């Protein structure tokens, strides 16, 4: 070992990380900053994008960021330093801001306890021929009946150092993620998965994603119509991922304290049914959302947020935890905590049995454009897409278009009647953060439609 | 300003590619926020880096944030290598342009002291509190962008942009009922923009309206004549005209993300609604949030009619999509940062004003609803099926306002909406927004707007 990270060693890059972090840390101390949290991220990302079954673009990023959070007499400042040559200028600016702004009451402290960290996962990053994976996805979809396909694949690696006034943590995170949308006439199907360092995505996996997306697009050639109303709906892992990704913002104590959370005042109260347990699980290295510590150096762990239907915890940093009279959950954002990698538990029922049990209702495979009219009560709508089916007597009657889920997060969670044994690692664009989700059966979802 | 390696990057990339371009951007930002009367700190950032695009058998882009020739060269080498793999490779090259441009500021962003910015946000919070807002969030963001663009055709363009953005969210609880409002204001200018808005009146009025809306009854579902305010005209212009006329969507390039377009496969011009409706996208409006003289692909900007008298007209084109349709780029190529590809994007998108005075729109409305502003909205991925939930809204009876209603819902289609427009006001207002597209998602600064409009026989839920 010569002091370089795995990534740097692979690429023959000499490390500047330790020197840069040390230098900035020391100079912030010299300027009178009292609590400091630095995060240095060295990122290497490849991407391929495709549509109409051929490549649109290759992207390649080579970036380094040093995120700085520092406090001085109750004032908080933050910045990102990208260029070592701009350190002087950045620190002068931070001091000026700290001298001339009011105190930040949202900040109490970063984590002052000495921490120990696990081994984490070594980076498995290697430059991958994304074109081969892309072709596997496209071919899988075309072979299964799609007329064309669009999508993208990422290969990400981040080497991260978090150094605070009290702790230092180094880890790698990243992996491969892919999305494919298959088109057949007016019908579409979509699959999107992510693979962290403990999993090895293969061309076969990507081919299967393509064929599954095409199978959804080919599930029916009939269109159906419904009137607005309440329906039993089988929500796919993508829809659950979407609703819970957006809802994770409400589970942050920051939103609770602000007055913009539908989960406020619900600790230890029932928010869902007994089969529903939701975790934040950044220690799961099979996903790309893994992370060894949070922004203030607190080790992350599997956090029970909802256990058997009861709200067990909000997401906390040290500051929000002190304000709430509890302990940090390792979810800093120092000012505004956030989830890293949600995981909804597997249920007892097979997907096959759930489909049979649906009898009369809707099956929704994906949703997007989730928007809230009322954060405090969780009232929202979202637009189903990529496989929206009317089910009658357990069979697909036809596809639906022009409908919406127009309901509230709290009502949907309370009406979960079954959760599937099968789960998927889902992540898609800005709509679904990296998570692991099952299918969920929900009774009485309000469906609206366009006139 | 950095960027010393830009010519070397272009020259190096040009040796191994059919077409190439390099862009250097330096972005200085300041953000501060107040939440429920608590100052939440200030973030100051400086980002810079190179984006190099090469075209061979396919198109590739490399991004590097270091003034380090070895790293930049390595990134370009990677891009050249993968661009030799098969894929789409057509791009409109255009002619050489050499120029520079700048956004004028009167109250310079860099001269605005930290204390002045903090005071602004604090005063907005105090106004909201005095008006009875239970939830208050205020965010002020400013940025300076310096950009240098060169390409293998010989273009060399420098830009210097100042942008200002103010966002707030307020919420009120009235008899146990909650209502919320978000507003965005933005401009390409200095801080003089905020002075021009009369924000004291706007904020106070917004909070007062929320209190009244919270205790108003929901409307009975049914058909109404509807008068929509400029805020709704603007979001409609943006969502159901601007997005579906981005030509990269029409050809499917956003297929797995933001989606395609209901115009895909249509013969043009395609009828989208009433002849009363024309929609414009215009990046040349000085001071607008989406203002630019040259786009991020070095193409001179100009006004574009997207819909004209009820039919499609132009599409929004960047260099790549222009080559697909066989036309010149009309300067729609925008990227949100140095490390993002330029996509076909909107700037200021608005419904062209008509002849009607505000009062005239109400004449002849026997049973109607005036929906002045909106809260929740969304639209499907082909930009056809859309929903707008009213925020400030009133019943109209025989031409007169007859009481508030709460959260009336328009859930309709693009063609049904535009076909129902029978009268267009002569007023014009804009609001700011961050338009999302692409993966990684890029939020670009835009304005959207329009006049008051009257729609006949709209189903309200």
Describe the structure.
The complex is a heterodimer of chains A (451) and B (461). Chain A has 451 residues and is an alpha+beta fold. Chain A starts with 5 loop residues before the first helix and ends with a strand. In chain A, a hairpin with a 2-residue loop joins strand 5 (168-184) and strand 6 (187-195). Chain A contains 10 helices and 17 strands. The longest helix of chain A is centred in the middle third of the chain and has 15 residues, at 203-217. Mean pLDDT of chain A is 93; it is low at 1-15. Chain B is built from 10 helices and 24 strands. Chain B has 461 residues and is an alpha+beta fold. At the A-B interface, strand 1, strand 2, strand 3, helix 3 and strand 4 of A face strand 2, strand 3, helix 2, helix 3 and strand 7 of B.
Any descriptors?
heterodimer; A: 451 residues; alpha+beta; PmbA/TldD fold; 2 domains; 6-stranded antiparallel sheet; 5-stranded mixed beta barrel; 17 strands; disordered N terminus; B: PmbA/TldD fold; 7-stranded mixed sheet; 10 helices; 39% strand; globular
Structure described in brief:
The complex is a heterodimer of chains A (451) and B (461). Chain A is of the alpha+beta class and 451 residues long.
Ordered list of secondary-structure elements with their pairings:
The complex is a heterodimer of chains A (451) and B (461).
Chain A: H1 6-11, H2 17-30, E1 35-51, E2 54-72, E3 75-81, H3 87-100, H4 130-143, E4 148-164, E5 168-184, E6 187-195, H5 203-217, E7 229-235, H6 237-251, H7 253-258, E8 278-280, E9 303-307, E10 310-311, H8 318-324, E11 342-344, H9 351-358, E12 361-374, E13 379-392, E14 395-399, E15 403-408, H10 409-414, E16 416-428, E17 432-449
Parallel strand pairs in A: 7-12, 11-17
Antiparallel strand pairs in A: 1-2, 1-4, 2-3, 4-5, 5-6, 7-17, 8-9, 8-11, 9-10, 12-13, 13-14, 13-15, 15-17, 16-17
Helix pairs in contact in A: 4-5
Chain B: H1 6-15, E1 19-35, E2 38-55, E3 59-64, H2 69-83, E4 98-102, H3 114-130, E5 135-151, E6 156-174, E7 177-187, H4 192-195, H5 199-214, E8 222-228, H6 230-242, H7 247-250, E9 279-281, E10 304-308, E11 311-312, H8 319-325, E12 333-334, E13 343-344, E14 348-351, H9 358-362, E15 367-371, E16 374-379, E17 385-390, E18 393-397, E19 400-404, E20 409-413, H10 414-419, E21 421-424, E22 429-437, E23 442-450, E24 453-460
Parallel strand pairs in B: 4-6, 8-15, 14-23
Antiparallel strand pairs in B: 1-2, 1-5, 2-3, 5-6, 6-7, 8-24, 9-10, 9-14, 10-11, 12-13, 15-18, 16-17, 17-20, 18-19, 21-24, 22-23
Helix pairs in contact in B: 3-5
């Amino acid at each position: 070992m010569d002091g370089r990270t795995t990534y740097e060693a692979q690429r023959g890059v000499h490390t500047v990380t330790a020197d840069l972090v040390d230098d900035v840390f020391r100079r912030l101390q010299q300027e009178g900053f009292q609590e400091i949290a630095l995060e240095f991220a060295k990122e290497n990302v490849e991407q391929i994008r495709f549509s109409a079954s051929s490549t649109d673009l290759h992207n390649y990023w080579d970036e380094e960021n040093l995120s700085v959070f520092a406090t001085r007499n109750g004032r908080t400042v933050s910045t990102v330093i990208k260029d070592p040559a701009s350190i002087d200028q950045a620190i002068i600016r931070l001091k000026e801001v700290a001298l001339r702004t009011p105190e930040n009451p949202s900040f109490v402290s970063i984590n002052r306890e000495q921490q120990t960290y696990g081994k984490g996962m070594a980076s498995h990053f290697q430059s991958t021929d994304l074109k081969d994976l892309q072709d596997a996805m496209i071919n899988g979809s075309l072979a299964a009946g799609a007329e064309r396909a669009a999508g993208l694949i990422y290969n990400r690696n981040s080497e991260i150092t978090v150094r605070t006034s009290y702790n230092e943590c180094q880890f790698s995170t990243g992996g491969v993620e892919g999305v494919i949308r298959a088109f057949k006439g007016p019908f579409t199907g979509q699959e999107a998965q992510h693979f962290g360092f403990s999993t090895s995505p293969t061309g076969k996996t990507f081919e299967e994603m393509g064929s599954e997306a095409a199978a959804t697009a080919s599930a029916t050639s009939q269109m159906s119509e419904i009137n607005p109303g309440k329906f039993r709906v089988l929500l796919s892992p993508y829809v659950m991922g979407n609703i819970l990704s957006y809802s994770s913002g409400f589970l942050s104590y920051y939103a609770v304290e602000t007055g913009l959370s539908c989960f406020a005042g619900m600790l230890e109260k029932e928010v869902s049914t007994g089969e529903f347990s939701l975790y934040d699980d950044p220690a799961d290295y099979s996903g790309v959302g893994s992370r060894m510590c949070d922004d203030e150096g607190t080790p992350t762990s599997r956090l029970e947020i909802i256990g058997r239907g009861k709200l067990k915890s909000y997401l906390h940093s040290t500051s929000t935890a002190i304000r709430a009279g509890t302990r940090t959950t390792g979810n800093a954002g120092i000012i505004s905590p956030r989830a890293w990698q949600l995981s909804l538990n597997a249920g007892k029922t097979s997907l096959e049995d759930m489909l049979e049990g649906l009898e009369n209702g809707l099956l929704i495979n994906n949703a997007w454009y989730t928007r809230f009219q009322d954060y405090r009560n969780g009232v929202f709508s979202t637009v189903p897409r990529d496989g929206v089916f009317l089910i009658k007597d357990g069979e697909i009657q036809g596809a639906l278009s022009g409908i919406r889920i127009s309901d509230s997060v709290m009502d949907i969670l309370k009406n979960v009647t079954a959760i599937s044994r099968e789960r998927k690692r889902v992540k898609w664009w800005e709509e679904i953060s990296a998570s692991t989700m099952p299918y969920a059966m929900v009774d009485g979802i309000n469906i609206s439609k366009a006139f | 300003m950095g960027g010393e390696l830009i010519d070397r990057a272009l020259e190096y990339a040009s040796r191994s590619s059919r077409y190439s371009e390099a862009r250097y951007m330096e972005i200085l930002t300041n953000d501060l926020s107040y939440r429920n009367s608590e100052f939440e700190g200030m973030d100051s950032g400086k980002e810079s880096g190179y984006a190099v695009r090469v075209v061979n058998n396919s198109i590739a882009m490399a991004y590097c944030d270091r003034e380090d020739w070895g790293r930049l060269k390595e990134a370009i080498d990677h891009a050249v290598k993968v661009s030799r793999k098969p894929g789409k490779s057509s791009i409109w090259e255009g002619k050489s342009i050499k120029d520079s441009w700048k956004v004028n500021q009167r109250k310079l962003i860099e001269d605005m002291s930290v204390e002045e910015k903090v005071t602004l946000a604090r005063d907005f919070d105090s106004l909201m509190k005095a008006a009875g807002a239970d939830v208050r969030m205020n965010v002020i963001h400013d940025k300076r962008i310096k950009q240098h663009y060169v390409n293998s055709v010989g273009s060399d363009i420098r830009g210097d942009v100042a942008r200002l953005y103010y966002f707030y969210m307020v919420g009120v609880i009235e008899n146990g009922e909650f209502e919320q409002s978000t507003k965005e204001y933005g401009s390409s200018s200095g801080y003089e923009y905020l002075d021009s808005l009369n924000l004291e009146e706007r904020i106070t009025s917004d909070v007062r309206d929320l209190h009244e809306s919270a205790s108003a009854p929901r409307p009975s579902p049914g058909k109404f004549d509807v008068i929509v305010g400029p805020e709704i005209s603007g979001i409609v212009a943006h969502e159901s005209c601007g997005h579906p006329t981005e030509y990269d969507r029409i050809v499917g390039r956003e297929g797995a993300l933001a989606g395609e377009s209901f115009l895909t496969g249509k013969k043009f011009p395609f009828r989208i609604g009433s002849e009363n409706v024309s929609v414009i996208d215009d990046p040349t409006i000085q001071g607008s949030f989406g203002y630019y003289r040259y786009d991020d692909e070095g193409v001179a900007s100009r006004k574009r009619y997207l819909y004209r008298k009820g039919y499609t007209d132009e599409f929004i084109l960047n260099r790549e999509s222009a080559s697909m349709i066989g036309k010149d780029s009309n300067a729609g190529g925008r990227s949100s940062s140095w490390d993002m590809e330029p996509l076909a994007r909107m700037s200021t998108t608005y419904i062209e004003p008509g002849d009607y005075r505000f009062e005239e729109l109400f004449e002849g409305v026997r049973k109607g609803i005036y929906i002045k502003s909106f809260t929740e909205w969304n639209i499907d991925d082909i930009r056809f099926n859309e929903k707008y939930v009213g925020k400030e809204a009133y019943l109209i009876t025989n031409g007169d306002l007859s009481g508030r209603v709460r959260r009336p819902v328009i859930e309709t289609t693009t063609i049904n909406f535009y076909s129902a427009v029978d009268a267009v006001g002569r007023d014009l207002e804009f609001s700011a927004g961050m338009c999302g597209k692409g993966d990684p998602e890029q939020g670009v600064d835009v304005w959207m707007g329009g006049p008051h409009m009257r729609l006949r026989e709209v189903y309200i839920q």
